Amino acid sequence: MDTLVVGGGVVGLSAAYALADRGADVTLVEKGSLGNASTARSAGGIRSQFSSRVNVELSLASKEVWDAFEERFGVDIGLRKTGYLLLARTERVAERFRANVDTQRALGAESELLTPAEATDRCPGLDPEPFVAAAYNPDDGFADPNLAVQGYTAAARERGVDVRTKTAVTGLHREGDRVVGADLRAVGATDSERREVDRVVNAAGAWAATVGAMAGVDLPISPRRRQIAVVDPAPPVPESVPLTIDLETGSYFRPERDGAALVGGHFDEADPARDPDDYDEGMDVEWAARAVERAADYAEYFGPDTRIRRGWAGLYAVTPDHHPIVEETLPGLVTVAGFSGHGFQHAPAAGRIAADLAVDGDTDLLDVSPLSLDRFERGETLSERHVA
What we know:
Layout: E1 2-6, H1 10-21, E2 25-29, E3 45-46, H2 53-67, H3 69-73, E4 84-88, H4 91-106, E5 112-114, H5 116-122, E6 133-137, E7 141-142, H6 145-158, E8 162-164, E9 167-175, E10 178-186, E11 193-196, E12 199-202, H7 208-214, E13 222-232, E14 243-246, E15 251-255, E16 261-264, H8 285-296, E17 307-318, E18 325-330, E19 333-337, H9 343-360, H10 375-378
Parallel strand pairs: 1-2, 1-12, 2-8, 4-14, 12-19
Antiparallel strand pairs: 3-7, 4-6, 5-6, 9-10, 10-11, 13-16, 13-17, 14-15, 15-16, 18-19
Helix pairs in contact: 1-6, 1-9, 2-9
């Protein structure tokens, strides 16, 4: 089976590897460099604490791969299980935490509900006063997305995947409802190459809607800009501190090496769609100052002496309900995109599912029927409230 994977981020690479592992002939095309778009700009979080069942299942299936990644792929991705700590300021959100923890535990996650005082045992610099409850999972953490890209790329190539960077898809071809081919153009080339294929996997992230439109499919996936700052807190953030999210303000931070920290969050009501080929990849200094101020509101590590080192901006590929679209959208076209900021952590499961859908037309890893595109037309959208 001749398969074309569009997108060289971690989801596309995972799909290419899984397809080749299933015996498919795979070509992966990436218009830029591998992992250099949203993947490289991710905070690298890996967690089970979501509010929807399908997101928890995607997390748990992916964690099995992340936990064994070095053994399986020969690359140490710097996986650090310091946990995730989610904070609730109101009883309304605390009640939601209780229900979510019950769901997560029923599915096999190690989540637990904490009092604010108990939360300070996990995060010693936390001010418990603004909060009424917390949720914690010691098995959550983060890893280095760039190292994960390296591992998947090497494994995909070893299995015969033809990896083409600086190569864009400029068109998809249909015969009736079936996608049967694609036009590929290398950077600097004047002419496109026509490729006949059995399957196309759209793993293009922030560009997924553009790729879908080439096949006449309207994908409600919108690129939204998000920022991260690297700061030197005072006092330093211990490396054992969990990735901590003040869920109702959107602020979060996590430790880096040597006492540094990442701070992030989206604080404005305005959240316009961005052109993924033309947006500011740098960090806004005013935003960074605001992110530090928000973190200082609930953690003693941040304050007037915190120094902002550097930062960057990337894109979330956002759907209206903050869940991905994972399905065979048309015969011959598999969509696996729109992860709304969770693509890195869900990439292992997403790649396996994409391969199953392309080869078998279905997957036994988990029930992905809630992630079909037509949920938006049916009015059966999901709800993911644990978004930062």
